[in-house]
Amino acid sequence: QAKSAGRNTARFFDPVMQAAAAAHDESVRDLRRGFAGQEFVLQYQVQVDNNGEITGAEALVRWNHPERGLVAPLEFIPLAEETGIILPLGQWVLETACNQLHQWSLQPLTANWSMAVNVSALQFTQANFVEHVSYALKKTGVNPRKLKLELTESMLIDDIEDIIDKMNHLKKQGVSFSLDDFGTGYSSLSNLKQLPLDQLKIDQSFVQDIMSDPSDAIIARAIIVLGHSLGLKVIAEGVETQEQRDFLMVIGCVAFQGNYFGKPLFAHELNMQTDPGDAAASSI
Ligand code: C2E
Ligand code: MG
Ligand code: MG
Ligand code: MG
To answer: Where in the cell is it found (predicted)?
Structure first.
């Protein structure tokens, strides 16, 4: 017992670990403060079809931090998941995105746009996840067919039957599902067979060097063939150049997202792009 107490004491007084623990606590406090202070905002990145027409957008959360400015999700989502803050934050994202979707549905140029929303594993495993999504849909009155939930392969290592059950409940309401970052996670092809998915999203890491790395090109093409053979839609993310878009079209891709078409923007910035009264955006 003395030995373990000694070990604990040594650990407690390790200045490096103590500093790390204090910094972690401070980050958690800051995240809670930020959520309570409504500092989170959504940007939207358009998705386009093979004619270049916008079909919808993906909602991407940012933390508008008073000192740090706009903070990217990868810098706070892991902590939000670790602390459970992702639950209220994720629900806020869902409701805010649905609200925006409702706004779009009221305007001619955006009336048919869909909305993709990222869902974290912790959110999905909550017993009341289906009810939470239904609530967001009812509250905003949007057509559930316009809502697409993005799952990642990392969440598929949990109870697959429970995941399928929840997906089916939501699919009955019209909600669709996309498997994000496809090809980088743990998913086995049998998961792909079992899950009631609607879309695969080719991870941007395969798109990035698609023009120079033959392996990436082969993998991207295999994903497209696999997806289409299984009756799924396939979208490529992280498309940055016309060459990448053209190449992806040649290998059969008909849906795209990436900075080539538009960076993630605030809703009012998107409106400027699509407002028919805006001379700069008008094609007439
Ligand atoms: P993701 O869902 O795979 O989103 C795509 C990421 O790629 C976004 O990064 C987007 O800004 C970036 N991206 C888009 N086009 C390009 C491009 O042409 N080139 C490059 N280099 N990057 C591009 P972002 O916004 O930093 O988001 C990172 C990740 O954070 C997302 O990856 C998603 O997994 C997660 N995330 C974002 N919003 C939420 C959210 O509301 N909830 C949850 N749980 N996760 C979220
Ligand atoms: Mg995504
Ligand atoms: Mg992705
Ligand atoms: Mg990604």
So the answer is: Cell membrane
